[in-house]
Amino acid sequence: MRIDRTRLHDTVLAGxxxxxxxxxxxxxxxxxLQGEGLPVEGLRDPDPFGAVLVVLAxxxxxxxxxxxxxxxxxxxxxxxxLTVLGYSGGLSGISGLVLxxxxxxxxxLAVALGGxxxxxxxxxxxxxxxxxxxxxxxxxxxxxxxxxxxxxxxRSLRLRRAYLEELKDRASRLERAHAADTRAxxxxxxxxxxxxxxxxxxxxxxxxxxxxxxxxxxxxxDPDLAREALSAIEHTGRLAMTEMRNIVGxxxxxxxxxxxxxxxxQDLPSLVDQMREAGLSTRxxxxxxxxxxxxxxxxAAYRLVQEGLTNSLRHAGSGAKAVVTVHHExxxxxxxxxxxxxxxxxxxxxxxxxxxxxxxRVALYGGILxxxxxxxxxFEVRARFPLxxxx
Length: 391
Description:
- The protein has 391 residues and is of the alpha+beta class.
- Helix content is 64%, strand content 10%.
- The chain has helices spanning 5-27, 30-35, 48-58, 68-85, 92-106, 109-129, 137-218, 223-248, 268-277, 295-315, 347-350, 353-364; strands at residues 281-287, 321-329, 332-339, 368-373, 379-386.
- Strands 1-2-3-5-4 form a 5-stranded mixed beta sheet, covered by helices on one side.
């Protein structure tokens, strides 16, 4: 069975205050107080009824958190009766202060002000109707100041708790926003990895398919040439596995991935050589003054050339020629892949999923992509990437 610790603490506090108040109520009789030089005019001797009133004034402390205003009113009634009837309250006044503090600390401003007004009214009523007279008005002022000070302490602690709760809520909102941003970043990273994997697999598998077809055709007539084609297939497969391992390595959680630099414009000569080995006559032209490019644009340009050449290898037909043109301008990078297109593939076969992914890459960096047949025959994939401040 679970125990409410706060209620237990309040009950213990009420019992301690009640025990101390009853003890002082019985110990400090008018005769003892008179012997110590204190005024006792109108003060009654302790009796069981007065002791009951003292206990009743202290018991509501046990409910100070659950029903603070009701507990304050319930405690002020016997405390006021003690004063009106001329009894010494012992420490019952302490319970009144505790209850006033609880109202100010656990309730809103309107209820807290009502509690303060009730406490001041009860004190004024008891002081004016009771038989014991206070010597000077300054004592009443001190009591009023104490009541207001206790009320103020309760309000300040309530405001502090509200401030801390607001800080916790703000931290929780920030944590949720951070988690949402993290999920969005992960989704974007998965999308990027999917694009990279598609480009790598599509390119290398197309090259391997063409090389395997060539090896099959010359296997009987020219074993040496078939052996070279098979070696090229093995080399291309290893390259594909290496690139795929580097890309997928970022998804591993049990070990750090061995990541290498992403390919870019500087890797186009090796890509052109690979396409030549696969049977596509390819030429690379670089125009303008080469300059460092942003990493994203550099990779997007490379993937565009890779996908364009793969498209030509698949659909341009045997004996086709392709030209890769990279034109550097101060504020623009122009990349084109053109082939003479003597194959029989139509436009729908040319514009496959790979070129759709290239369109997303180019749009990501604000570029303009054009894909389609050339007026004099052939096919072109062209992208223009804007560069800011020469980058």
